[in-house]
Amino acid sequence: MSDIILEMNHITKEFSGVKALDDVNIKVKRGEIHALCGENGAGKSTLMNVLSGVWPHGSYSGEIVYNGEVGKFHKIKDSEDKGIVIIHQELALSPFLSIAENVFMGNEQTSVKGVINWVETRSKAKEVLANVGLEDEDVNTPVSSLGVGKQQLIEIAKAMAKKVELLILDEPTAALNDEESAKLLEIMLELKKRGITCIIISHKLNEIAYVSDSITIIRDGKTIETLEKGRDEFSEDRVIKGMVGRELTSRYPARKPEEYPVGEEVLEVTGWNVFHPDDADRQMLKDINFHVKAGEVVGLAGLMGAGRTELAMSLFGREYGQKISGQIKVHGKEVRIRNVKDAINNGIAYTSEDRKTYGLVLIDDIKHNMTMAALRNSFSKRGVVDKNEEIVKAEEYKKLINVKASSINQAVGSLSGGNQQKVVLAKWMLTQPDILILDEPTRGIDVGAKYEIYCAINDLAKAGKAVIVISSEMPEIIGTCDRAYVINEGQIAGELNKEELSQERIMGCIMSHNRKGE
Amino acid sequence: MENQKKANISLREYGMFLALIAIFIMFYFLTGGKNASPFNINNLVMQNSYVVILATGMLLCVLTGNIDLGVGSVVALTGAIAAILVVQKGMAYPIAFLAALLVGLGVGMFVGFFVAFLDIPPFVVTLATMLMGRGLTYTLLQAQTVGPLPSNYTQYAAGFLPTMKVQAGGGDLDMISMIVAVICIALLIITEIRSIATKKKYNFAINPMWQTVVQLVVISGIIAFFFYKLARLNGIPIVLIIMGVIVSIYHFITSKTVAGRQIYALGGNAKAARLSGINTKKVFFWVYTNMGVLAAVAGIVLSARNASATPKAGDGFELDAIGSCYIGGAAAAGGVGTIVGAVVGAFIMGILNNGMSLMSLSTDIQKVVKGLVLLGAVTVDVLSKRKKG
User: Fold this and answer.
1) Which of B29, B96, B179, B372 has the most neighbouring CB atoms within 10 Å?
2) CA-CA distance, A345 to A330, in Å (whole number)?
3) What is the spatial distance between Cα A216 and Cα B109, in angstroms, rounded to a whole number?
């Protein structure tokens, strides 16, 4: 057997004309821990989906050589049969089933055909759990009673029960605290000793530098380089340079703040603390202080799971979290916001990062969606809707932000992502807010529509609104914002003004904050 | 106007309406014209009034994506309470009606509380009220029929407006009914003219003249036919007025008010509705409270029609009401449906029942046919939407 367990050569994968992966090459040595780094959307997950058969053989070009033979996986089962197991960020556990049942889910220990052998299931589960340091757990406990960290380990145990040779972990520590993360990393090193090869995808570069033997960096769907421990420099800064070293073309309309002077302070948040909605002891946001002025576009940068959406949702009528404390001042006056209606009445608007789930009624038409939030305040008299006014405004905003649809009576569900996002934006513009919080406003939409959204953001700022943009794409923050706060692990890790805004500085803030936390 | 935009009436919108007419005409031939007799038309109104009232309230529940299984039992319970108060306690009928309505309100708030504030699935809560309501009815009535109810009570389901009869075409003709018909048609035409004027003012798209005329002629024709038949018998039933008022109010609420729009938004996407500032708990609470009150109205009407309260009253009404909503184009997942659709759905069921009875088909066969029609109507609706989108 060769030294190389997996080779992926010249992998190219297109989604309706857009290259998600462009000639990617990766070599993984047997028994090593290989890290995959890159920004959100760089193509890491797509690559792993190609490997595991989520995207079947034939839907991409290039070849996969696994254990010296060409792998043609048509479905996940095919790759699992060869010993490749992928653990996704969203855990695939059934919460009300026991640990033992989950460990052997889809791989049940049976005696006669189809009948589960419970004795074997339990005893084998115990054996497997010992590998991941959970030998003390009662295998009959339902999985839902365990913390996320242990659930993650159950996932690994599940993989080991399938005789795994190559284990892929997608962001395994994103939802874990430091202690749990450290334990998981130790388990990974333990698995390595047993000869199991691991591929880990992670944003936490300090963890990667600690645990991995080699790092492959992907950027914009291309492999940039592979670093090896002992041969190359293995520092976080080195990895960041590989990840973000990209030219910024004019994907963003010019901000000309000098022409539209920034006004008074519109929103000021001080001492904001929020706890997890299901776990009163877990603090999700800690002593957040920030402010936004009229005519200013302020970014909230940070990695996924840093707490930006949680911050926005907790401000927006306490839609997230519990035991919320802190002060919100709008136009210098302290306001009490207990629900979404209060938030709207105080001139705050929030567009969710998940427009289909939280932003739109997909079966309803454009005009009803646009007026949904402003209906009571702007389109009704004594509870009766003024349908004519509704049509007039919907037409006006459809033109204003260029929603491409046959008419305002078209169902929102049939629009493209970009046009859906514009409808959401119109819906909140119609509430005539002073403060707009836009959460991932361009997620999953094409370049042209993105540009139009950026223009709309500029126009809002021009009109004297205070705009907050939450984005995981650092270039977007840099391209659209006048100022940005970097959020990390529920805290503000730094504030950067226009001149200081760069990907290196943002990542730098996150890294130094992580180090402080250790 | 040269730049006036054009629009077309979509036949799909009137599909259920056309189906109703088609079914009626089909039975006209199958029963040799018996189903269009004045007596039978009058019967159709009286027999279906409570299902129409229930379907109106049920539509709101269906719009939220849920149903209320308890309405049949609430109908029985409230009818029993009103009857007991009048017959056994000798109270005046308005007090008995008020008591019945308050019980309906109470049951509705009870359901609303569990559904809205404790997040218990409506299916479970209303299954419980279905059992409890039926059990309480049997207990209160001691499993006996209570009656007969006095005529000032029963007139609300069996009575008629005063008439003004003249001899015409070989029989009596009530002029009051004819005048009401003329007023209804006039109102219809005035509303349409005003709506076109508004559309012109805002430069909205309007339908071609011939389409509007055809639409008006068809609807006016139905109204004229319907009232003419009633005029040939006893004039306008009081229950038709009750039904008409309730349907108009709820049609207005669902199509023209903020509250109505909030129900649609909640049914279409509850999370998005919440994040748009809609108090979804409150909406749920009032939808179910309202259902309780309307069930009480139906309970009073049913007991009045039977001139008595029976423990088995209203058995299976919840399913008729739910079926009416679905036949009328409401979506089981919520967010789609209209009051007019639910009423048309209720009458489709009613005409089927009535027609098959006139053909002396057994009630067992009638159930089979009703089941097939429900399944067929919803299947056609779902498939036609799928093709479109």
Assistant:
1) B96
2) 11
3) 62
Contact call for B389 and A358, based on CB within 8 A: no
Query: HSE of B201 in the Cβ direction (CA atoms, 13 Å)?
Result: 8
Tell me the chain A residues in contact with residue B272 when contact means C-beta distances shorter than 8 Å. Answer: 357-361, 372
| Residue at B314: amino acid letter | G
Q: Look at residue A396 and give its three-state secondary structure.
A: helix
CB contacts of A391 in chain B (<8 Å) are 202, 204
Q: Side chain identity at A329, as an amino acid letter?
A: K
Contact criterion met (CB < 8 Å) for B275 and A359: yes
Site of tokens 């989950």? A102
Residues of A with CB under 8 A from a CB of B: 316-317, 319, 339-341, 343-344, 350, 352, 357-364, 368, 372-373, 375-376, 380, 383-385, 387-388, 391-392, 411, 413-414, 427
Model pLDDT for residues B9-46, shown as the tens digit of each residue: 666 667 788 888 999 999 999 998 888 999 999 999 99
User: Which of B259, B265, B277 has the CB atom closest to A361's CB atom?
Assistant: B265
Residue of B nearest to A314 (CA): B275
Report CB contact under 8 Å: A350, B335: no
Which one of A37-46, A407-416, A439-448, B314-323 scores highest in mean pLDDT? B314-323
The answer to whether residues A349 and A424 touch, using CB atoms and an 8 Å cutoff, is: no
Alpha-carbon distance A461 to A457, whole Å? 6
Cβ burial, residue B333 (10 Å; 0-12/13-18/19+): exposed
Distance from C-alpha of B351 to C-alpha of B370, rounded to nearest angstrom: 11
Helix, strand or coil for residue A218?
A: strand
Distance of CA A227 to the CA centre of its chain: 26
pTM listed for this prediction: 0.79
Asked if B257's CB is within 8 angstroms of A363's CB, the reply is no
If you count DSSP H runs as helices and E runs as strands, how many of each does chain A have, helices first? 17, 22
What single-letter DSSP state applies at residue A358? I
Cis-peptide, bond into residue B148, ω within 30° of zero = yes
Residue A405 has pLDDT above 50, yes or no: yes
Verify whether the Cβ–Cβ distance A316 to B271 is below 8 Å. Answer: no
A288-A293-A298 Cα angle (round to 5): 60
Question: What is the tens place of the pLDDT at every residue in B323-370?
Answer: 999 999 898 889 999 999 999 999 999 999 899 999 998 888 888 998
> Choosing among B13, B262, B275, B336, which should be mutated to test the A contact, i.e. which has the most A CBs within 10 A?
B275
Q: Tell whether the model's pLDDT for residue A170 goes beyond 90.
A: no
Yes or no, beta carbons of A364 and B204 under 8 Å apart:
no
What is the nearest CA distance from B248 to chain A, expressed in angstroms?
Answer: 15
